[in-house]
Amino acid sequence: MPSDRSASSATSSVAPQSSSQLPSNRATWTSSSASSSPDTVLPPHSGYHFDGSPRRFFEGWYWRVQIPNTRQSFALIYSIEDPHAKTSTPEFPHAGVGVQVMGPDDGYICQFNRNTTRFWADAHDLALGAAFKAGPGRGPSPLYSGEHRSDVRPLGRMVSEEDFSRLVELGFQASHTHQQGSIVSDETGASGAPYSTVPSCSWNVRIRPVSGWGPTGGSATGQKATAGWLSVLSVFEPHWQILMSHGLASGWIEWGGKRYEFKDAPTYAEKNWGGGFPSKWHWVQCNSFEGHPGTSLTAVGARRALVVGVQGVEEDVGLIGIHHQGEFIELVPWTGDVEWDVDPWGRWWMRARNDRYEAVVEASCAPNAGMVLRAPTIAQGLAPFCKDTFFGTCRLRVWRRTAGSSTSSTTPFIDVSSNTAALEVGGGPWWSSWAARAAMKEPFRSLVQLPIDVGAIRGAMPSFLRPPGL
Predict the structure, then answer these.
(1) pLDDT of residue 212
(2) Dihedral sign computed on CA atoms, order 78, 20, 362, 33
(3) Separation of alpha carbons 279 and 302, rounded Å
(4) Are 209 and 247 in contact, with CB atoms under 8 Å apart?
(5) Beta strands 239-255 and 236-237: pairing type?
């Protein structure tokens, strides 16, 4: 099996399409893939994890939509910072609600509001929203909490498209099957200088989930916690859950006055929660491999903190997760080996193996690609802390292994490429290549291997008995 860590082979057979080749006003693009029921792909930790305690806390949600037949994508990113503070104060200066959208040609817009009472989320389901400004509709509105239109309170639940458009001028609502919102560039309260590239963005997108984090099809109890069952305990900082490794999105997104319409566009979703993002990480995501609709990849390496009563305890962890033709391949450090060699920008290489599979991910991007995004941090709240691009080239290869053998088959049974991968590095700053091997610390590495099915527990437990988020 090749072990060359250069990303020169991470190219796609698809000719790149520049933004100048896109239609100048509006157009419709279509893709196709398999389907599944939303209820069978909703994984554990889909709910909102805030438990009311006064500690530093954030929760963030990320949805990506890749526009078929182009190299353009959108990411809808929602986050809540220090919800217990109600609004930013000297004690909690970073409290607030943020909406970031990354758009065509690695563009960016952000709206931040310091009033956390305008945000709502369901503790046990994937549903959330915020109202920054009430709509101009006539008659009584549940959004007005006082005499003035600026006294806005959240809707508290998902509503119809028509009601949302009437009641909310600026804000959003989001679930695993529907995303709707409208924002303007207003970065006041978020850390860092303003750098939005468009003045406004609005969207209305319907989503058909196909794969969550577990086998495609079957029952909802087959879905897994991405970090294992220990994710139900506050031992990692932060926690992470892939919500949807592959889905199909239809609708429209208006970006700075230009509307993009699409049908059955590949979509992906994940979330994080805790005190702040890892001190250092890298990430590769793709579910738009040429000629292989439905094949999805998520690969990550991170230096995360451990909440063990001692400050500064960290560990390097990572995984490669793949959905391919109904098969779910999960390569994690508690059942195998995960290693990486990643540059500060431009080159990603990862390899992972267990008794059954070995996978290699190679990815690259142009030096001038990318946009700085904000991420939740412990010290600065929502702050510029990572760099992303949607113009990554990526090659994924997977070999089967025979149990007990130290070698893999000579020919990979998965060998797919794309030039529309999402690539990210974050934290640091780090100035040289990061070569590392995932090494979970004990006793967590042994404990996480216990046969505890969080998805089954979630399915069997009445909602009123579940902890927040489960």
Answers:
(1) 94
(2) positive
(3) 8
(4) yes
(5) unpaired
